[in-house]
């Protein structure tokens, strides 16, 4: 496992630990995503450099292999022509190209292994990014639910329906007081009218009696 991969594992572990304690997981996840994007960019650049280097090594290997075969053919031709000296020179160059082929072949294999490792790391990082981004959307939706719930609770606290019954209770008490006051006034007026009616009836009775007395007096010639 490369040092880069170990660093990424530590970062993920730290993220998992901090998420459990974070008050704003979305903000923490965004920080992680930004760092991961930077890592992906870095790996992509390194991958391109390794790809270019691997291509150059492949060219060196192909050239050494071609020249090795070519010098061997030249050595055979020289031997057939009885030119032993030229055959030796061709074989000497062949040995040089064989050594070059072996050296560059090892470098090429190492470069290819590193290139595959980088490609795997790049794919893992992209998958990791997509996974965490998906979690980010989920936690973002949950945090939005919490914010909206808090706003709703705040409005319910300020204008909540629980105060409506109390408001109507107070209104009911006031209206009841007004009704009692009006009823009392009405009863008072009715009592006053009854009193006046009674008083009027009493006065009428007295007047009738007085009229009757006067008529009796007149009929008696002015005597009681």
UniProtKB/TrEMBL annotation:
The UniProt record lists the keyword Coiled coil: yes
Coiled coil: 101-135
Record field: transmembrane: none
Keyword ATP-binding: no
Highest taxon in the source lineage: Bacteria
Keywords noted in UniProt: Coiled coil
Pfam hit, one: PspA_IM30
Family to which this protein belongs: Belongs to the PspA/Vipp/IM30 family.
Protein name per the record: Phage shock protein A
Organism: Paenibacillus antarcticus
């Amino acid at each position: 496992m490369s040092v880069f991969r170990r660093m990424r594992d530590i970062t993920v572990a730290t993220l998992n630990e901090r998420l459990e304690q974070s008050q704003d997981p979305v903000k923490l996840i965004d920080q992680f995503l930004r760092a991961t994007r930077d890592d992906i960019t870095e790996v992509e650049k390194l991958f391109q450099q390794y790809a270019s280097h691997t291509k150059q090594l492949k060219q060196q290997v192909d050239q050494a292999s071609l020249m090795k075969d070519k010098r061997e053919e030249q050595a055979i031709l020289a031997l057939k022509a009885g030119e032993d000296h030229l055959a030796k020179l061709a074989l000497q160059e062949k040995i040089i190209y064989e050594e070059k082929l072996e050296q560059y072949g090892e470098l090429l294999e190492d470069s290819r292994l590193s290139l595959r490792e980088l490609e795997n790391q790049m794919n893992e990082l992209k998958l990791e990014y997509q996974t965490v981004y998906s979690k980010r959307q989920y936690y973002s939706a949950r945090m939005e639910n919490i914010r909206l719930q808090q706003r709703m609770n705040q409005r319910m606290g300020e204008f909540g329906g629980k105060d409506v019954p109390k408001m109507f209770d107070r209104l009911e008490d006031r209206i009841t007081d007004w009704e009692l006051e009006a009823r009392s006034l009405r009863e008072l007026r009715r009592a006053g009218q009854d009193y006046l009616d009674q008083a009027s009836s009493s006065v009428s009775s007295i007047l009738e009696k007085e009229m009757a007395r006067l008529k009796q007096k007149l009929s008696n010639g002015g005597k009681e």
